[in-house]
Design brief:
Structural class of chain A: mainly alpha
Strand content of chain A: under 5%
Radius of gyration of chain B: 20 Å
Number of helices of chain B: 14
Helix content of chain B: 25-40%
Oligomer: heterodimer
Helix content of chain A: 25-40%
Distance between the termini of chain A: 38 Å
Largest sheet of chain A: 2 strands, antiparallel
Largest interface: A-B, 55 and 78 residues
Shape of chain B: globular
Structural class of chain B: alpha/beta
Number of strands of chain A: 2
Number of strands of chain B: 11
Strand content of chain B: 15-25%
Number of helices of chain A: 3
Order of helices and strands of chain B: EEHEHEHEEHEHHEHHHHEHHHEEH
Chain lengths: 93, 423
Amino acid sequence: MCMEEDKLKQVSDNARIRLTEDEVDAFSNDLDDVLEKFESLQEVDVEDTEPAFHPVELNEETRADQKGSSLSQEEALSNSENTERGYFKGPSA
Amino acid sequence: MRSISFRANDESGSLEGVPFVVKDAICVEGVETSAGSEILEGYRPVFDAAVVERLEDSGAVFHGKTQQDEFGFGSFCTNCAHGWPRNPHDTRRVTGGSSGGAAAVCAATDEDVLSIGESTGGSITNPAAYNGVYGLTPTYGRVPRTGLVSYSNSLDKIGVLSSSLELVARGLEAISGSDPGDQTSADRPVPDFSEESSPGSLTVGVPTQLEEVDLERSVQNNFETSLSRLENLGYKVERVDVPLLDPDICVAAYYVMAVSEASTNLARFCGMRYGAEGNPADYEDFNDYFSQVRGEKLGEEAKRRIILGTYARMAGYRDDFYVRAAKVRRKLINQIEQVFERCDLLAAPSMPGVAPTFEEAQDMSASETYAMDALTVGPNLAGVPQLSVPNGEGDGMPTGLQLIGPHWGEKPLIDVARQLDGD
């Protein structure tokens, strides 16, 4: 399995990362090499095996669906310069 | 150090007056927390991570933040936006990664420091060995991650490094236990890690798969000496077979899971709300803005891993990569649990060699660098605890012995390390 340049550009668009042409050249070589190493997973017989999405059993209990404390509006906005009238400011939608 | 930022503390407790530092990815209120990345530059959290709260409640005194690879992406601490830390044993060499600064500060200071690191695939064991200090990676879920800039949610574990084994034990005791802010933190009793006890007559298993890794001669010699010392202490040492600790398979399964989870976790860093920002008015729409800021501000390795992870999760590939890797993890855990039915702990070298020079590290390709994690990714994938213990030198640089326990089995690792320390 390998990653052609077109595929790489499609993936980087999906990931919302703009790459330079130099990066596209460098990454397509690197990524081919890494994806080849990933192929060793296909050697393992995993039939009838349940995936372990965590390494230990987790407590499945969720918190009560009740209003709790959260950041104040001032705290939430304190790390951004792009704010206006109490909201974050982004590009035109 | 990423930053020196003393915060006075007059609390009394088990760690009263003990200086502590935290890896840059761990939030400290009002102190810049960038996880080694330009994209989080200027971010000052409005809250403390649970581990910081707990250490201060125990009387420990915050002294600053340590350098790391960007988001934890690296084995050498050379993927850093804010300069490379140098190994105190030889400044031409790397500190290891990704908690490189966390280990180096312990090795560089005369006074014992409690250093909080984080491991996803070996980021505590690796720098602990390269810097000749103790490094304990606890069982997944032992320590809450509330306030950690997450890299890979099913693999990240906060742990402890120090030149003092006793500080490692006391530090782990202080930070362990469930927290309502982290649903994956385990509601289990916390043992008295700092209370010395006899580990009894134990059987130490040496996985043959980890002995097949290409080791430098000094690492091999020091490992054999460590096994002899364990035998002299009365432990039975035997070779054991754990087929899925095969480094090729473990490295693949680990990286597939880690990059897949990283690609979703890091989607939140987009130039809005905190960290680096552009001028939104200069962009056509949100996608244009996000793509530009992320392209400019994420480092090379971060981009590589996010792209790999995005690819591995795409429709048509997810079952072949992410789900398959999670199934391999299930089988690996089963095999490790089986071997712990007849062994009490496992032992392996911490790293295949001593810390490379910066030039040697820079000359490695991405896949060669990933292969450096051959000894550490298996235990991390399985979520079992590991303790790296300094066990000698090679070329004037430290090497480490890695003790591995079953889930929730940190206490015997510390007790055995105490015996080795006093031997």
